[in-house]
Write a structure and sequence with these properties.
This protein is about 40% helix and about 20% strand. A hairpin with a 4-residue loop joins strand 8 and strand 9. It is flat, with a radius of gyration of 23 Å. By secondary structure, the chain is α/β, with parallel strands linked by helices. Helix 1 runs parallel beside helix 8, helix 2 packs parallel to helix 13 and helix 4 packs antiparallel against helix 5.
């Protein structure tokens, strides 16, 4: 399951967004720092209209969407890496996630304690704290590697990489952006550094800006990639509605997708993830895999026995299965392919695995 951490300065809308994602008031939202004392964790279903269409074709009422685990981490402040605010306790939670959603305030609100909009400075404040935390981590790794040099030839190369990374962090370059020779990339990318993680910038805009960004706001956020803009307040209102009411709400607001849908789509793309389906009379289910995953490993996401005993996979893309009207009709038309161990699963593939128990 994809695990995403929500971070940002206090009072930027993190907890409001988290509440909206979970469709209930899990995290207490209030206008003062450190409202979220313990990181709130919640599992959110991934919206996917394809599931409903597949369920209609295979005649099942049970639908199991893919899911994303969101972790709402307390607002960091300047000096967090050295213990200010709630300090390292919360930096440790960020290390456990697959990607970071960095919520940035891009709206004016006289009720919010901190006035003014300055995304660039806000982002830099958070990044400095993460860089400082990473410098502490990298120094510990360097110290440990230096002790291994006498007994390990590999340690010599690793130490060189660690020192290059430290030099980059000292120049305020995020670990993921530090250039390293290709032969050392795997080692560098596996380092337990917060700034090694992929980041999505979520700009919390006013409800008026959701349909059309003002030139001023667009100028403020365009240099940060990848990004999503949404209104956390609007997402919270949307989350309180039934599905049909949500569609009407979005239509009236003049937008095609909710912020959640946009955020998950960008997250999947950033991390190189995709979805395949299993669809039968018992259930229709979405499974998340990395792009480039071969058939046996895709089967292993369901159960390790599926991967070990993999024989073949019957595969058809979801839209062709719907066009055919079901599995039997699709087989009669010759649209269902029998794929082997070297087949690389594609986005939207729908499958039945053949395996030995």
């Amino acid at each position: 399951m994809l695990k995403v951490g929500i971070v940002g300065l206090p009072n930027v809308g993190k907890s409001t967004l988290f509440n909206a994602l979970l469709k209930k008031q899990v995290a207490q939202a209030a206008n003062y720092p450190f409202t979220t004392i313990d990181p709130n964790i919640g599992v959110v279903e991934v919206p996917d209209v394809r599931l409903v269409k597949l369920a209609e074709v295979v005649k099942t009422e049970k639908i199991i969407p893919a899911a994303v685990e969101f972790v709402d981490i307390a607002g960091l402040v300047k000096g967090a890496a050295s213990g200010e605010g709630l300090g390292n306790k919360f930096l440790s939670h960020i290390r456990e996630v697959d990607a970071i959603v960095h919520v940035v305030r891009a709206f004016e609100d006289s009720d919010v304690i901190r006035s003014g909009i300055d995304p660039k400075t806000d982002i830099q404040t958070i990044n400095i704290e993460l860089l400082l935390a990473d410098l502490e981590t990298i120094q510990k790794l360097i110290d440990g590697t230096e002790k291994e040099i006498k007994t390990s030839k590999e340690a010599i190369g690793n130490l060189e990489v660690l020192k290059k990374v430290r030099a980059g962090l000292e120049r305020e370059i995020l670990a993921k952006d530090i250039e390293i020779e290709e032969k050392h990339l795997i080692f560098k990318n596996r380092l337990p550094l917060i700034t090694n993680k992929s980041v999505i910038y979520v700009f919390n805009v006013s409800e008026e800006n959701v349909k059309n960004l003002t030139p001023e706001v667009e100028t403020l956020i365009k240099e940060f990639q990848p990004f999503v803009y949404l209104s956390a307040k609007m997402e919270a209102e949307l989350a309180a509605l039934e599905p049909e009411e949500q569609r009407e709400y979005l239509k009236d607001a003049g937008v095609e997708q909710s912020g959640l849908e946009k955020l998950i789509q960008v997250s999947y793309k950033l991390l190189g993830l995709q979805t395949y389906f299993t669809a039968g009379e018992k259930e229709v289910r979405a499974w998340t895999i990395s792009s480039g995953t071969k058939a046996p490993q895709a089967a292993g996401v369901i159960h390790t026995d599926f991967e070990k005993g993999f024989i073949k996979a019957e595969v058809i893309n979801w839209d062709k299965l719907i066009e055919a009207g079901g599995w039997n009709q699709a087989r009669e038309k010759g649209w269902v392919r029998l794929e082997g161990k070297d087949y690389i699963f594609q986005e939207g593939d729908t499958t039945v695995f053949k395996f030995n128990v």
